[in-house]
Amino acid sequence: MKARIFFATLVILASLISCAQMNPHPMEMTSAVRNAKTSADHEALAKHYEMQFMKCS
Questions:
Q1: Domain boundary assignment for the chain
Q2: Alpha-carbon span 42 to 40, nearest angstrom
């Protein structure tokens, strides 16, 4: 009986952990996109997104 409760609790905790929101963007991307003024700003954003794509592929 105790083993069933333990494993049920383990499954519930594992599912909660797997559904936890992970922040893939360490910086505030919305403000970075809005505040990009120069070509260098846009290049930095493009590089950031390319690096994220490479990590996911």
A1: 29-57
A2: 5
